[in-house]
Amino acid sequence: MSIIRIPSPLRPYTDNLKEVEVNASNVGEALVALTERYPRLKPHLYDENGSLRAYVNIFLQQEDVRNLRGQATPLTGDDRLMIIPSIAGGRS
Amino acid sequence: MDKSILEEKLTLPISFPDQDLWSTIGNTPLIRLQRLTDGFAESVEIYGKAEWFNPGSSVKDRPAAAILSKALSNGLLKEDRVFLDSSSGNMGIAYATLGAPLGIRVHIAIPSNAGPERLTILRALGAELTLTDPLEGSEGARVVAAEMAAENPSLYYYANQYSNPANWQAHYTTTGPEILSQTNGRVTHFVAGLGTTGTLMGTGRYLREVLPDIRLVAVQPDGPIHGLEGLKHLPTSNVPEIYEPTLPDETIPVTTEQAYEMVRRLGKEEGLFVGISAAAAVVAALNLAKRIEEGVIVVILPDSGMKYLHQPIWDVK
User: Fold this and answer.
1) Is the Cβ pair A90, B229 closer than 8 Å?
2) What confidence tens digit (pLDDT) does each residue in B171-221 have?
3) Complex-level ipTM beyond the 0.90 threshold
């Protein structure tokens, strides 16, 4: 299982969970699994064309997945993904 | 140059009072939008207040100066005490800019996902930084700063911009009177984004007192996660203590995509290379302008685009 860490502004949509475990072989599958479990998250992460919004960054460990293989970036069992807004604002 | 001419020039009765850095805060230009308002009623005018003309390059110099002044006059920064606050960028840069010439040590708790430009600027200005968890946002940075202050109260003076009344008072005493004077009292609508809410609270209170019919318009992101740096979605945020919800007449939501589009148009059509929150405020001002038949709209443009160069929004090759 991989773990996705949720930023504070999105926790109202994940039952206030800071981390969600998903079973996925790559980043794209992990995000699909997350948004299927918490459908109200989807419009905050994806635009109406189904693309990840420009200001939503997905990090695998310390690396932006855009610098890896994007949503095709493979995951191993105990990887930790983070959803990081591109700006430092947020819940304050 | 001929020596006698130089001597003559040097004896001219020119004086430069108050030439220190702090004296250059405020009195920022009011710039009329020219092309974005094509097709609008002639009797609708939109002016942007160009806050990047401040010495620290943003609107935050005003509250930072007021907060620092208050701390200094209350004797809270004596004996090498460190000035501490949280910031996601501009406020920290303002503190560091204004603290440097006074020899004040400035320490900023800032989320580690703050843009690289602002982290470099802060370090160049001598600020000490504590990088905080990017998943906890600016509230996480605020909590870290409060904990640091509580653990070591003799070392730190904790400014807390979200609850410090000097924040909105700075706008009451400077931004509001400047807008009144620069429009000869003709301003009918004031538009500002909501972050700490100090700009709207202070400027709005002043303008409402002198012009009771003025419309005060707040701008906020359309949702909890967004790219409008510096702005907050208040329904899902910890509302700053200085915010008075009955003051704005209206709050206009703006999407990040609208602001990205506007940031490019402002550069190419108006020659205004502004930051993203400025573009969001202009989206709201244009939305407003379409609905009125006449009026003088003043919109705050908090900073320039220089601190957003790393973001993939400029559409340049």
Assistant:
1) no
2) 999 999 999 999 999 999 999 999 999 999 999 999 999 999 999 999 999
3) no
Architecture of domain B21-58+165-308: 3-Layer(aba) Sandwich (3.40)
* Residue among B195, B224, B238 minimizing CB distance to A44: B224
CATH of domain A2-85: 3.10.20.30
The question of whether B88 is a catalytic residue gets the answer no
Prediction pTM value: 0.92
Predicted confidence (pLDDT) per residue in B63-121, tens digit: 999 999 999 999 999 878 999 999 999 999 999 999 999 999 999 999 998 988 999 99
Is A82 in Cβ contact with B137 (below 8 Å)?
A: no
Residue of B nearest to A48 (CA): B257
Cβ atoms within 10 Å of B68's Cβ, excluding its own: 24
Which residues are paired to B192 by β-bridges? B218
Hey, how many other C-beta atoms are within 10 angstroms of the C-beta on B240?
A: 22
Amino acid at B100: A
Among the CATH numbers 3.40.50.2000, 1.10.287.1770, 3.30.1490.20, 3.40.50.1100, which is that of B61-158? 3.40.50.1100
| CA nearest neighbour of B299 among B213, B179, B202 | B179
Among partner residues A7, A57, A82, which is closest to B137 by beta-carbon distance?
A7
